[in-house]
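Severity: low
Component: inverse-folding endpoint
Summary: output formatting inconsistent between runs
Steps to reproduce: submit the following structure tokens with default settings.
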């Protein structure tokens, strides 16, 4: 089966992991979780998990995560249009 690249689609896709919350989460709740995740990143067991699983650390705050998801959505939409699987 030909890959997307074999079919002329110049794109790279990777798997990311994240935590999502309800859309009505308060700014205080967002801040709590952002701080909680920032606290675990320097912990040795977290670093060991990254190494063991071959993960790259790319901690983003809520605003940067939203921007990333919007960009990812647009990229995937363009790929699906190019493949003829959805209309513009």
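Observed output (run 2 of 3):
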């Amino acid at each position: 089966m030909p890959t997307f690249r074999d079919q002329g689609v110049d794109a790279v896709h990777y798997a990311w992991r994240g935590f999502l919350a309800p859309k009505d989460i308060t700014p205080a709740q967002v801040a709590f979780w952002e701080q909680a995740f920032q606290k675990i990143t320097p912990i040795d067991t977290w670093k060991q998990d990254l190494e063991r699983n071959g993960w790259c650390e790319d901690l983003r705050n809520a605003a940067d995560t939203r921007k990333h998801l919007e960009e990812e959505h647009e990229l995937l939409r363009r790929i699906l249009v190019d493949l003829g699987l959805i209309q513009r």
